[in-house]
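Tokenised fold entry reproduced for everyone:
>
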Amino acid sequence: MNASTVRDAQLESEVDASLNRALASIVGANFVRSGFAERLAYARDRTPFATFHFRAGKLPGTMPRSIVMPGSHDEVARIVALAQARNVPVIPFGAGSGVLGGALPLGHEVMIDLKRLNRLVEINETDGTATVEAGLNGGQFEAALNARGFTCGHLPQSLHMSTVGGWASCRGAGQNSTRYGKIEDIVLGLRMVLPDGRTLDVRPVARRAVGPSIRDLFVGAEGTFGIITQLTFRIWRKPEREIGTVLAFPTLEAALTSARQIMQAELRPAVVRVYDAEESRSRTEGMKEFQDRPILGILVFSGSARLASVESELALEIARKNGAVLASDEPLLHWQKNRFVSYSMPWQTKNYYMDTIEVTGAWSQILAMYQRMGEAARAVHPGIHFGAHWSHVYAEGACQYMTVRLPPMDDDKALFLHAQAWDRISRICLELGGSISHHHGVGAFRNPWIGAELNTGLDVLQALKDVIDPNNIMNPGKLALRPRPGAVTLERKG
């Protein structure tokens, strides 16, 4: 190491020490972390790409500069103003449950951990709303609502390892989205800090026609336009009754046709789940109904007892016309027991390369999308696992959620094949008019394909970013927006 490099390193250390002292003056010294182990813990989220790199002893991006933990909206505003004054990039961090690198540091950013903003501010039973700080754990939020007889209706698999702010930032969906909607349908209003430290409030009202939706500019922005600190959600009374049904379908086409017809009949199931033959097999082993009808379908209707009963009966009529028969409720009970459990970790700890890819498509294209994507994935490697299910369905189309798993092998080879599988599946999605993301968001991992989907819309987002955040300090390089000079990109092998 030459003398110039030593001086540069010393200068950087002095700058970081000065920054940390300034951050401590805002939040207190106990809430600023800069040790190696602490920074390493924030150098990744749950992106499988990041897990593969950590497993091999490598970083997916860079180490963060430090971690700061504000305890109020005002402290967030002061931190952002400080970062703006010093031209220091920052990343808002909830629980780190994202799977596409939205919270990965790519340029030694300061991580703003929001978990101390965890208050349930108000439940308004008259309006049917709940106001909550963005760092509250999702499971704790739902439990607090349940204690008052309500539900948020947003129940993602990551419920207990995610924050409500993360739900909004990634434009997420819960497992009951068919009834309650995605998070953009549930968020009524929000409070946030803009990149210059100013506060923006979007009041929670029943619809409006005052220009374009400002709320929707920030729901799904993944922290690139500012930091959400508080949200007001629609909430619902806990359903009086739930009626669950397990169905065996003769073909995948019959099952998907039933799902489409149920939604287009204006029924509102809480849960619709259709599994392909690969994913059905392990869930129905030994069940006689599936010997000649290999496709598993699950329906749950909820609400008042009378309404749930009528909707369930009407849905069963549709399913039977498509060749379905009733089966025992074992697959439903298993899913209910394990609905918040991650299936990826057990495989990843055994050195498999497991990932999930969720896309959306129109009903007219969804079967071709599944068939072509399966063929493309299996062509990548003879030992690859490919399976899919459909668990967010709407009148016009559905989310196709795929599992892609490569066996243990040389890391460089696996990363090459992993990148190929992602690219082939994403390109097919775009060719068939679909969207490359339903609820996981974009982060950094989907950057290569977002321009093809948004076309000139990406130019619009970049223009907005340039005006709102001219110094590009807010989670730079995500959503295919311009990175900062010197930042790294995810090192894909494909």
Observations:
- The radius of gyration is 23 Å.
- The first helix runs from residue 3 to 27.
